[in-house]
Amino acid sequence: MSGAVLLVDDEKPVRDALGQTLDLAGFDVTRAGSFIEAVDHLSRDFAGCVVTDVRMPGKDGFELLARATSTDPDLPVILLTGEGDIPMAVRAMADGAYDFLEKPCPPRRLVDVVTRANTARRLTLENRALKARLAAGDAAERLILGASPQMAALRDACRRVAASGADVLITGATGTGKDLAARVIHQLARPNQPFVAVNCGLLTADMVRRTLFGSDAGPGAFLRADGGTLFLDEVGAMPLDQQVALLHVLEERQVTDRDGRPQRLDLRVISATHEDLQALVADGRFRADLLYRLDVVRVELPRLADRPEDIAPLFRAFVEEAARRTAFDAPPLSADHVAPLLSHDWPGNVRELRNRADRFVVGLDPSGAQEGTRGLSDRLDLVERALIEEALARHGGQVSAACAELQLPRKTFYDKVKRLGIQLDRFRQRGG
Ligand SMILES: Nc1ncnc2c1ncn2[C@@H]1O[C@H](COP(=O)(O)OP(=O)(O)OP(=O)(O)O)[C@@H](O)[C@H]1O
């Protein structure tokens, strides 16, 4: 997990001693006795750093530095210098050397410098991979992570559904990615158009009516989503009388505006539920005709525990993302961290895994592996930020609703948003 080191020194005893120190510190060490032996290992995706002696018979360490920087200017090269070589080594820093170490080098210093170099290297490679993914893939590829067959099938399903224009029902347990799948379908089919999300589970009957059809406060979600996508989350919680009204709009594809004039709608409706709608129909809590109308195309999301091969890669991706978001370093992940993830059954699915990654990055991991590496105020900031962001997400970015839920005066809320670097825009519903 600590990364690779290409260790180059012509003197075997030095190579052995330094190599052993690095082995013990957990690095994956490749040893080379000369420039010629070393060059074959240099590549643009080498996942670590080079530690090379300066003085070697034949081509020396400076020539290896030149070759490494021409292969990849971001590959860290650490020079091992004798006493007389320091002025040259200092000049070599200007030519792109990462650092230099004077021989004999204390093990602790060697490990520190290599750890720093490899952290920088990991970030470089991650950024490159992210940029490549962003440049290469469509929204399904960019946003839906996971190499399991179920996730490949989900990406395909989103593409097919997007191309079809049909209304969609997304089913799956909490945190499996229903909201994400809806946004991906929208992005693939109607990018740059409004995406309006209504969470039927959070609203009273009267609020559902006003949110969907409008009120004195403004036009309803149908009109706001016109041209784009209306996402009805937790549709199983919709009150029965609103189900009738919804069915009517879905069939007629028109609503009346505030002046009572009929307006034709061009939008896709995506509904989502974690409930068994058929069972709700049997219970008399959901209309069979509405279910039939919503369920034109169905996308089912698998539980995380049913695709265990995705758990560790997703956790890594979320740790890296949390590190970028919080400006904390991503702590190294060892097998000790990954094993408990695989034995857990993840009732909260991907959301739970993502929250666990957030806690891991700030040292609140339940294994205690990172305990003590962050100060108390850093940890409290993260908890505060998570609670505020969750409230904003729940209320579609509406500050007054988030303040009410968190019982915070508006000014205090804005002070915290500023201090914690929360971007309110991220939570505002487009078109909403
Ligand atoms: N395959 C995936 N790749 C990347 N992120 C994912 C994936 N699946 C889910 N997520 C992330 O997990 C979190 C939960 O997903 P989401 O909100 O879409 O779940 P949900 O099924 O709508 O949950 P709920 O039913 O509780 O509303 C989000 O942060 C989402 O981006």
UniProtKB/TrEMBL annotation:
<keyword id="KW-0010">Activator</keyword>
<dbReference type="InterPro" id="IPR058031">
    <property type="entry name" value="AAA_lid_NorR"/>
</dbReference>
<dbReference type="InterPro" id="IPR025943">
    <property type="entry name" value="Sigma_54_int_dom_ATP-bd_2"/>
</dbReference>
<dbReference type="Pfam" id="PF00072">
    <property type="entry name" value="Response_reg"/>
</dbReference>
<dbReference type="Pfam" id="PF25601">
    <property type="entry name" value="AAA_lid_14"/>
</dbReference>
<dbReference type="GO" id="GO:0000160">
    <property type="term" value="P:phosphorelay signal transduction system"/>
</dbReference>
<dbReference type="InterPro" id="IPR002197">
    <property type="entry name" value="HTH_Fis"/>
</dbReference>
<dbReference type="InterPro" id="IPR002078">
    <property type="entry name" value="Sigma_54_int"/>
</dbReference>
<dbReference type="GO" id="GO:0006355">
    <property type="term" value="P:regulation of DNA-templated transcription"/>
</dbReference>
<keyword id="KW-0597">Phosphoprotein</keyword>
<dbReference type="InterPro" id="IPR001789">
    <property type="entry name" value="Sig_transdc_resp-reg_receiver"/>
</dbReference>
<dbReference type="InterPro" id="IPR027417">
    <property type="entry name" value="P-loop_NTPase"/>
</dbReference>
<protein>
    <submittedName>
        <fullName>Response regulator</fullName>
    </submittedName>
</protein>
<keyword id="KW-0902">Two-component regulatory system</keyword>
<dbReference type="GO" id="GO:0043565">
    <property type="term" value="F:sequence-specific DNA binding"/>
</dbReference>
<keyword id="KW-0067">ATP-binding</keyword>
<feature type="domain" description="Response regulatory">
    <location>
        <begin position="4"/>
        <end position="118"/>
    </location>
</feature>
<dbReference type="InterPro" id="IPR011006">
    <property type="entry name" value="CheY-like_superfamily"/>
</dbReference>
<dbReference type="Pfam" id="PF00158">
    <property type="entry name" value="Sigma54_activat"/>
</dbReference>
<feature type="modified residue" description="4-aspartylphosphate">
    <location>
        <position position="53"/>
    </location>
</feature>
<keyword id="KW-0547">Nucleotide-binding</keyword>
<dbReference type="GO" id="GO:0005524">
    <property type="term" value="F:ATP binding"/>
</dbReference>
<feature type="domain" description="Sigma-54 factor interaction">
    <location>
        <begin position="144"/>
        <end position="362"/>
    </location>
</feature>
<dbReference type="InterPro" id="IPR025944">
    <property type="entry name" value="Sigma_54_int_dom_CS"/>
</dbReference>
<keyword id="KW-0238">DNA-binding</keyword>
<keyword id="KW-0805">Transcription regulation</keyword>
<keyword id="KW-0804">Transcription</keyword>
<dbReference type="InterPro" id="IPR009057">
    <property type="entry name" value="Homeodomain-like_sf"/>
</dbReference>
<dbReference type="Pfam" id="PF02954">
    <property type="entry name" value="HTH_8"/>
</dbReference>
<dbReference type="InterPro" id="IPR003593">
    <property type="entry name" value="AAA+_ATPase"/>
</dbReference>
